Amino acid sequence: MNRRIGLQDQLVSELDRAIRMLFTSPTPNRLSPAEKLPDPSLKPNDRIKSIALMRVNHAGEISAQALYSGQAIMARSKKTRVQLLGAAAEEQDHLAWCAERLAQLEGKSSRLDPLWYLGSFCAGILAGAPGDSVSLGFVAETEKQVEAHIEDHLERLPKADTKSAAILKRMASDEAHHGTTAQLAGGTKLPAPVRFVMACGGGILRRIALWI
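Given the sequence above, the corresponding structure tokens read:
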């Protein structure tokens, strides 16, 4: 009985957190890497491209928050839960940085952010259900794929947009750290079909959030 009530409490708390995250401005714990950089003068087409790419990264960080939250709820050990929530705190910085940069570019976040959150939260629950080693393996694979996608965005980003580039470079560094930490904590390598499905899911988000 106590365990069921505890789970209900966690879900209610998560619903409150999701509402606040989706409908209020996120607050970072660390200054943005772009904070002290001058605002570049972008051509109209370059600004549109930067907005689209940063909207994708913002949607990705919405998903990251949901994934970690779902996995943390299912974590078997306190150590794993603390590790997941610690990574989520750094991902919240990424979310805030992306939101701030979108505002500076006069762009909008994805209108499907609630959908990205819900889908990723469910994926986090599923990833955490088999146990901590699988859950940590999911983190490692997710961060590996995210790091690759950020590197791709850095190549596609207009060269003049140094502020967005600084944010993405710091994000890539943090993602690599999260993945390595998850592996060292006992994360198991996921089967190829699972990695493929994860890549497909990420690809769908990137393609749709680029425009919506």
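The mean pLDDT is 87. Try to locate this feature in the token string yourself.
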